[in-house]
Specification:
The protein is an alpha/beta fold. The chain contains 19 helices and 30 strands. It has an 8-stranded parallel sheet. Strands 13-12-14-15-22-21 form a 6-stranded mixed sheet, sandwiched between helices. A 5-stranded antiparallel sheet has the order 11-24-25-30-27, covered by helices on one side.
């Protein structure tokens, strides 16, 4: 049944009205229709399910590749399974509005059919050899150019039509940003006019032409975002274009620019693939929050398997789905489940999502976070990813971040992620310690911001080649932060090293907090790569010194040729309230590769020493992701139990509960405690408050426990 635009506008005014809607949604439901769903799937089932699970917001397939409504835009392909009077999108929108839900429409512009390509060949992406680009998965489709006339003209018309007809709250753009360099006439001419260059043949950001293309592409995509957003707002001032974009150091669009212009974003890391830790959902939430301040972030999770073989109709195991969603929630993301296809082939996931959402709805007031209380910030650097990492960015940049991330989780240190474009005093004011995981590319201005942070009492930890390159990836003659580190580079990086070690200063390992857990270790393994350095002052014996590589075969020759050197491999000092730690080797990347316990201990100790007093500590068995939050009238400590043989490779088969956990929560100044409770059915055996510190003993944790403290 088709309804007119007046109906949908009236429903929007009833449900949303003049209020901004962005902070309202807490539990999202996404139904991504496939073309043969109309007339085959049961929309009433989905609307009933949304009501049952207390979803308050929905993302529904609208148009782009396929229109699920009676479109009047030429060459906008209408589902061949729709009847003359059918309006699947409108039917779902009306049903969701009847339940008081926020609704956004999903568009996907990345592919068109033969007829549209023949009528508008200028819409089709072109390969480097000049041939139009066929779709890699659907042989009767063509890949569109994301930057040219199809985006500017066709998608603007489609977005305008959807908004004018249905008065949705926003349009969520999927696969809107393209798939590599397009060599169509539009891209060639527009790029040449903007840069004076020809389109790049090699994808390497260290090359001038590709760096220029990345900048031009980014500006063009932001211009399209503005164009579509303006078209939407001209009809509904409260509406928004919401791009599916963003991520960490390897993300293709600047997250600082993205976060500054977005009122709401959604982290689209749906599930694990290959070797991926279960905490990756929480990491994704942290990356987005680093760019969004206190604006809402949704965490998209799939109910299916998300491996490279694309089993889109699959169902994931229940423990895997529950823990993935739990870690995203604990790290500040609002849950969004996504289901591909309206027809159900496997119903096992339905009660799992219902259980997750029922818990979330019961405890919503403790999940509307107003601020993270973490005092440690882990920097991720997109400019390092581009200008230094090149084709090896995952190894040279991302692996350093992942190593630190895992070490902080294992050390149970609450932390946020920080974008490298947001190192100003305002954004760093909440942190006591900042971690730079091989943040090789830093501008002079960024280095000055870091000096100001330390001058104000903030502590700093850095590894390997941090600050050795400028923002364009050009190598400096020395570390730009050599004055902070107390060390200078003396040559090019060395490695990969075989069979190299580190000697621990005998006195320091008994007394210095950096060596907690390593008191009996005279020697530990080195990393794989190191930057040769010299200390600015040598008054104190080095804490950690180089034992150079020596043969590892034949076995008779496996002995050090040099037992001791005076070469420091760790610089640590206190400067007023600030504590500075510099490790001129790839400890974080090596830790991620081999997970050596000594490296993990050193990283965790460095973070704890640099940060000083933490907002919360948790003692007990197992691997827990610990986060600490403030809400309007409460504080929460999340404990996500990652203890599982499948922590680094899914899917999980079952949950392995851990035993008693002792929580120590430092209360913000002036806070008085009311009720204290657990949100997931655990048992509080002890609770007492003294001297601004709340101590509680939790009997154990299954998947996800939350200590909730009401403020009187």
């Amino acid at each position: 049944m088709q309804r007119d635009a007046a109906f949908f506008q009236a429903e929007w005014e009833r449900v949303i009205g003049d209020a901004d809607w962005f902070q309202r949604p807490m539990r999202w439901a996404q139904l991504t229709l496939v073309e043969n769903d109309p007339g085959r799937y049961d929309p009433a089932f989905w609307l009933d399910y949304f009501r049952e699970i207390q979803a308050d917001s929905a993302c529904l397939s609208a148009g782009g590749c396929v229109a699920y409504y009676p479109t009047q835009v030429p060459w906008h392909h209408r589902s061949a399974w729709m009847g003359a009077d059918d309006d699947p999108f409108g039917e779902l929108v009306a049903g969701c509005r009847a339940q008081g839900m926020v609704v956004i429409g999903r568009t996907d512009p990345h592919a068109i059919l033969d007829d549209a390509a023949q009528a508008h060949p200028e819409w089709v992406a072109v390969q480097a050899d000049g041939s139009p680009r066929r779709h890699w998965a659907a042989a009767d489709h063509w890949v569109t150019c994301a930057l040219g006339p199809h985006a500017e003209e066709q998608m603007t018309a489609i977005h305008r039509e959807i908004m004018a007809r249905y008065w949705v709250d926003g349009i969520f753009g999927n696969r809107w940003s393209g798939h590599g360099v397009c060599y169509c006439d539009y891209c060639r001419e527009a790029f040449r006019a903007a840069s004076g260059m020809e389109l790049p043949a090699v994808a390497d950001a260290r090359r001038d032409d590709y760096a220029a293309w990345l900048a031009w592409r980014e500006d063009r995509l932001f211009a399209l975002w503005d164009l579509w957003d303006a078209a939407i707002r001209a009809i509904n001032p409260r509406g928004r274009y919401i791009p599916n974009t963003g991520g960490g150091a390897l993300s293709s669009l600047d997250m600082a620019r993205t976060g500054a212009r977005a009122d709401i974003l959604f982290a689209d890391r749906q599930a694990r693939s290959g070797l991926m830790p279960i905490w990756a959902a929480g990491m994704s939430a942290k990356e987005y929050r680093a760019a969004m301040d206190d604006k809402p972030v949704g965490g998209i999770f799939s109910v299916g398997v998300e491996e490279r073989y694309r089993w889109k109709d699959s169902v994931q195991s229940a423990p895997e789905v529950r823990l993935w969603a739990a870690d995203a929630t604990a790290n500040g993301a609002r849950p969004w489940f996504t289901k591909f296809a309206g027809a159900l082939h496997d119903r096992r996931w339905l009660p799992v999502v219902a259980e997750i959402y029922a818990w979330h709805a019961r405890n919503e007031r403790y999940l509307r976070n107003t601020a993270s209380l973490a005092t440690v910030g882990l920097v991720y650097s997109q400019q390092t990813g581009r200008a230094y990492g090149g084709a090896e960015a995952r190894e040279r940049v991302e692996s350093h971040i992942l190593g630190w991330y895992h070490a902080l989780v294992e050390a149970r240190i609450p932390f946020d992620m920080v974008h490298d474009r947001r190192l100003d005093a305002e954004h760093l004011a909440r942190y006591k310690a900042l971690i730079l995981p091989n943040t090789a590319c830093l501008s002079d201005a960024q280095c000055d911001q870091l000096r100001a942070f330390c001058s104000a009492g903030g502590s700093l930890i850095a590894t390997y080649e941090t600050s050795l390159y400028d923002e364009r990836g050009r190598r400096r003659s020395d570390l730009a932060l050599a004055d902070l580190f107390g060390a200078s580079a003396t040559g090019p990086a060395e490695g990969p090293m075989q069979n190299a070690y580190l000697h621990l200063n005998a006195e320091a390992r008994q007394a210095h907090p950096l060596f907690a857990g390593l008191r009996d270790a005279e020697r530990i393994i080195h990393g794989v790569r190191r930057l040769p350095t010299r200390a600015h002052e040598a008054a104190q014996p080095p804490l950690l010194t180089l034992v150079p590589s020596y043969p590892d075969l034949p076995m008779e020759q496996v002995f050090p040729r040099v037992e001791r050197t005076g070469q420091p491999e760790l610089y640590a000092e206190e400067r007023g309230a600030a504590r500075i730690v510099y490790l001129p080797w790839d400890i974080d990347r090596t830790y991620w590769e081999i997970l050596n316990a000594d490296h993990g201990a050193l990283l965790g100790n460095a973070a704890a020493w640099a940060a000083g007093e933490l907002p919360a500590t948790v003692q007990g068995p197992g691997v827990l992701d610990v986060t600490v939050w403030r809400q309007a009238r409460s504080l929460t400590v999340h404990l996500v139990n990652l203890t599982n043989p499948y922590m680094l490779k899914g899917p999980m088969r079952e949950v392995f509960s851990v035993g008693e956990q002792r929580v120590c929560l430092r209360l913000p100044e002036g806070c008085a405690v009311g009720d204290v409770r657990l949100l997931s059915g655990g048992v509080l055996s002890e609770v007492h408050v003294q001297g601004g510190v709340l101590r509680a003993v939790i009997s154990g944790v299954a998947e996800h426990e939350v200590l909730a403290v009401d403020l009187a």
